[in-house]
Design a protein that fits this description.
- The structure is a homodimer.
- By secondary structure, chain A is α/β, with parallel strands linked by helices.
- The two termini of chain A are 31 Å apart.
- Chains A and B meet through helix 3, helix 5, helix 6, helix 7 and helix 19 of A and helix 3, helix 5, helix 6, helix 7 and helix 19 of B.
């Protein structure tokens, strides 16, 4: 399964979804092509999904936000009769290596969080019109929506049959969302999650598993009504607004790396690392919001974010052996800040600028849950300023050169490495735990944080950055090369699993939210269960599912 | 490793610790007997520990709270030269089955949480006098203390070398406590946790890894001073107060179960379950606090809690294949409430009653993190009232008989099953997430919770309990036997791993605290890492440690 996965698609190429927009309502219908699996070896029966199906869903979520400002409510439904969605394909899961399963679950979780983010931050309310049985990941997809409507046809049920049928957990937030979001009583959640056949009708409403059960004959009409009601309360521009097209990114991909317009990644396979460079903006700063709309996908913050997002997804899936990402920026500090000011000034009032802000936020969150060591190198010519400084703060460590590289030609030194704090480092791009990256970094040290608020909008050099606690170390040219090299070599020598666990703990300090709990308590347990023989062994439940043989469990509790 | 572990001990039998009490200061010194391992196959070198060493530590923690009300500060130190504690013994870990490692970590975590609980709730401040190197679990032991003093001898360091040396995480809260409790900046924590040699001297203070570095020549004197300072601010009774002896519980243990005075456990190996019965109080309710002190360990709430605590520990360690615990109570509802009122009335003013309250709280917390399915059966003759109702609420499900069993002799029915809510169900015994069990059960449903507050101190029968959301189901005699039997059979047929993960998610809804994060984010990741070949395989770091051979890692990130 060393399939090289491309995350780019577009509605006209969808094999599994149909996106229809009518005025302020969009309908996204799942109709999985059985023979459309991303990888050979399984058929996508019963509207079950694999990574390929979810890549299309993610694309739809993105386009609804950027290309469809008129859409205020999204109806998520199925084009198949009596079958909403059966969740992740079991044969695919059973046949996949552990790392593939975990990465797949991470992406699907991020997409579902993105659906909730659209409801919360774009006035685009998602409604699950569950017109057939929603099982496992199918029900979890519905759980990511704001409202769940269930058809009352005496057979359609919602269920989380993973524990009884597959010996694993509902892996896309199901256990967390039933209690924390839908407030299902936990003993009922326990019952529900061990009952393969699920719950339907009135009981599903009473237990809060769905919001409403609707008779078949009034189904279509009621769904339309609920969508119209949701749309009515939206702050989204609505009909008349013009969206932004998202053309293909089409990076150059070869054995040495990936190159986009603003983002490049160079592989160093011997060292087990990727050198990621984000290039800052060039050219004129748009003076008006109208100009931002004209630029559309060419507006640097959006273009750069799309590229970075795509890069993260490709590297996570296609380059699992490159365990360290070295992150640099290149560009002019003032230009970076000028573009950032456009975002800061207009994100409250303009839907597109608001979308860009939240998209950069979501992309940073992807970095936060990426199981790679992230090291920021802050060198002369870099532009870690304001929003771009978040890239460095998302890293596990930050190294900043004090002074110049020795081999710099005299008279051409330019400026030494400098960083700039701005207002956007104090809450514009929160992490999943609800804290800004600075709050996480200085957790509980409010005085320090208050001091940093006084240090915004000016250039901070390496020594001062070190004193202010903004970088891990600030070697000068004499030490830089050795220190960085040894640090990267050491990192590459450590257990990848231990690093993944360590980083997952240290990146998220302090409080947890429903979203962070999904990646922590739920996902970490699921990762453990996925590698246990009771699930993935020869006689385990995942492998035996559908064979007619019952799984053989080691009954010992751990 | 099917060693039958006994968790009872006493200071005069300690092989690894010395407990010295002088006035209001206690000193607990670690001096591990190399040949004193609980299980054959390893030597406890360098003050490293196994479960046996930690059982003694737990005993000391308990006796300091109950037998030593005069002790206001506890100095935790080492009796070995230049060696505070090397953490969990690596050979023991490398040679242990996965389940043993996980259960061992759970107990050590609970004991360290208990140390913090003593500081927080008993005015007994623990101070780590780190008079030699504290590595891994050794430093984590210090992290559980309120203050960490480090000797400045040019060699003694604190370190978390698990990631670089063993390919696993610091498994006893280390990663969580450095950031969340000690507020070490997370990039520094990353550096620290990958640096095998650790940090010493001034840097350790600057990074907040320790509170103070003290020269060798003033060491003893300064430690005494710091202990005296901590004691000075304590609310603990201090010298003059008389403690309560904790005599051996000595349960009857045989193949069929365990029997204590107030708690019994009957094994049903065919069904894979244990029937736990807690017997309510009998005899006179103490009318005064003085009488409670006279009764001491015979005072029912303390006696019952000690037995329940010991039972949980034995079952978890010795009976891993009994995956379901069926929990019943037997006794008089009024008597249970009368005893509970003694606790409610005096826990604010009397140290012993306060200790009993917090001990029952800690024992319930042990249930919460126990990886067994917990099912409460509420039958006629039970006494799930007030504090004892917490036992039912700690369970995954609650079944309550509506009416009487058919075979009850007419005229001898007595009362049907009834439960009683009391004030103590609303915060007296919080879970690790900071919520009461009712708040967890009805998470986010404040109106429901407010309604329940109006329903305290009266008997609630099965139908009403069902309506009030206090039980999962309330079958009558016609359905009871089948429903309970089928439910228990179904439970026993499910994957033990999936159940463990599901229960660990559903029991803790909503917010997380440092304590719950240790059991969730940290421990769940550690469990995953423990089963990975990079740690536990033939060529993994745990197995290769100390052999001179370097581990061979699969470099793929997951």
């Amino acid at each position: 399964m060393t399939h090289h996965v491309d995350f780019e698609t577009a509605p006209e190429r969808y094999r599994h979804w149909t996106l229809q927009v009518e005025g302020e309502i969009a309908q996204l219908s799942l109709d999985v092509a059985e023979d459309g699996g991303l990888v050979p070896g399984y058929e996508l029966k019963m509207n079950s999904y694999d990574l390929g199906v979810d890549i299309e869903l993610y694309d739809a979520v993105q386009r609804l936000r950027f290309t469809h400002p008129e859409v205020r409510a999204v109806v998520l439904t199925s084009a198949k009769d009596r079958n909403f969605c059966a969740g992740a394909n079991i044969r695919m899961l059973a046949g996949s290596p552990h790392a593939w399963k975990v990465n797949f679950c991470k992406f699907t979780n991020e997409t579902r969080n993105g659906i909730e983010d659209a409801t919360a931050n774009s006035g685009q309310t998602w409604i699950a019109a569950v017109n057939g049985t929603a099982a496992g990941g199918g029900y979890e997809l519905a759980l990511a929506c704001e409202k769940i409507l269930l058809i009352d046809d005496n057979s359609s049920a919602v269920s989380l049959p993973e524990v009884p049928l597959l010996g694993v957990l509902p892996g896309t937030g199901g256990l967390t969302r039933v209690t924390d979001k839908r407030r299902v009583r936990k003993d009922r959640a326990d019952w529900f999650a061990t009952r393969a056949e699920g719950v339907r009708g009135k009981q599903a409403v009473e237990w809060r598993l769905v919001d409403e059960v609707i008779p078949k004959r009034t189904w279509a009409e009621t769904v339309r009504e609920r969508a119209a009601q949701a749309a009515a309360g939206s702050s989204r521009p609505g009909p008349g607004a013009t969206g932004v097209e998202l053309p293909p990114l089409g990076p150059t991909v070869d054995d040495d790396g990936l190159r986009y317009r603003h983002v490049t990644a160079r592989f160093d396979r011997a060292a087990g690392l990727v050198e990621v460079t984000v290039h800052g903006p060039t050219g004129d700063v748009p003076e008006t919001v109208e100009r931002v709309h004209e630029l559309g996908a060419d507006f640097w913050p959006l273009a750069m974010t799309r590229e970075l997002d795509d890069l993260i997804l490709r590297l996570r899936t296609n380059e699992p052996e490159l365990g360290t990402w070295v992150v640099r920026t290149k560009g002019d500090v003032e230009d970076a800040l000028a573009f950032e000011r456009v975002i800061a000034r207009h994100s409250g009032e303009d839907w597109l600028v608001n979308e860009i802000r939240h998209y950069f936020k979501r992309t940073l969150k992807r970095l936060d849950v990426t199981s790679r060591s992230l090291i920021a190198l802050i060198e002369p010519g870099s532009c870690f300023a304001g929003a771009l400084l978040e890239l460095a703060l998302a890293c596990d460590r930050q190294y900043m050169l004090d002074g110049f590289f020795e081999d710099t030609v005299e008279g051409e030194e330019g400026e030494p490495a400098q960083i700039v704090l701005s207002a956007s480092n104090f809450g514009t791009f929160p992490m999943a735990n609800g804290l800004s990256r600075l709050e996480s970094r200085l957790y509980g040290d409010d005085d320090h944080l208050a001091k940093l608020r006084q240090e915004t909008d000016r250039r901070i050099d390496a020594r001062e950055a070190l004193e202010l606690g903004l970088v891990t170390d600030a070697p000068d040219d004499i030490d830089w090369e050795d220190e960085v090299r040894i640090m990267l070599e050491e990192r590459a020598s450590l257990s990848p699993d231990a690093l993944t666990g360590m980083e997952a703990n240290l990146r998220f300090v302090g409080p947890e939210t429903m979203e962070s709990r999904i990646f922590a308590r739920l996902t970490a347990w699921q990762n453990w269960i996925f590698v246990r023989p009771n699930a993935s062994g020869e006689e385990g439940a995942l492998r035996r599912y559908g064979t007619g043989q019952r799984p053989a469990y080691d009954k010992k509790r751990v």
